Amino acid sequence: MTATLDRSATATSPPSAPGRRRPRTTPRTSDGPVRHTRRTKALVLGGLVFFTLYSLAPVWWLIVSATKNQSDLYTTNGLWFADLHFTDNVRELFTYQDGIFLKWMWNTLYYGVLGTGGMTLICVACGYGLAMYQFRGRGVLMGCIIGSFLVPHALLTIPSFLLYTDLRMVDTPWAIIVPSFFNAFSVYLAKVYAEGAIPPELLEAARIDGAGEYRIFLTIGARLMSTGAATIFLLGFVGSWNSFFGPLVFLRSQEKWTVMLGLYSWLKVKVDTSTDLTGMVVAGSLLSLIPMVILMISMQRYWRSGVTLGSLK
Fold this sequence. Notes:
Elements: H1 2-12, H2 38-66, H3 70-75, H4 86-95, H5 100-132, H6 138-147, H7 157-166, H8 174-180, H9 184-197, H10 200-208, H11 213-224, H12 226-241, H13 245-250, H14 259-272, H15 278-287, H16 290-298, H17 300-306
Helix pairs in contact: 2-15, 4-15, 5-8, 5-9, 5-12, 5-14, 9-12, 10-11, 12-17, 14-15
């Protein structure tokens, strides 16, 4: 019996070789996850602080510069305030050229809401169809959609311009709105979201109850995809609001320009003439951020409701 105990003790705890240290084990908490060292926490925290400052520094410079007059903009510290002239800059911005800046803001809002709203409806319907229905050529169609990501938009400029010229759409709002209806990435995003948000059993139950496919999509599919549709709308609206190349190519009349194209034209005035409109451009750039902030705040409830969307399954 003594020999058996000695043999088991030797098997469970083998003696360490002389002069050899045991490997150092990583400490763990009571729940099991590995504890992070102070150096790791410091590196992570430092990286987060750096990227936060890197992201907010341009916004801070824009806010500070919008409060300065033309001379203080070039002679004072760019990251701190001088004499406050924000109200004067805004008044000059709204009255310059009979308030054309407000016209540009309205044009951008009109193009963005109409074009992005149509794009959201089309892309959500296409993504729903690709996710919920099985049909011949579905894989080839998805391959074409994904492959279109690799095509630069600049390559489509000349064919689009020739097509819009034949359709007499150049220098009209439809030259900006109609191309916004189609976005391959939004279709892919809607398909992926529909596959995770809509249970196929729920659609089968609706078909058994006698509901048609259009009614199923409008009453079930569209509601379950509201969070994904809000994300698609937000991404599309931000892209439409910041678009520059399309309005530059397809719009000729100054009254039909977008705010980004209009502010760029004011910067060119300094190059072409002796007039410097940099102060108004900075103030206009700050005011152009307001619709983005309002849109982000107004759509927060869709993302909060999307967190519990999986409980429907």
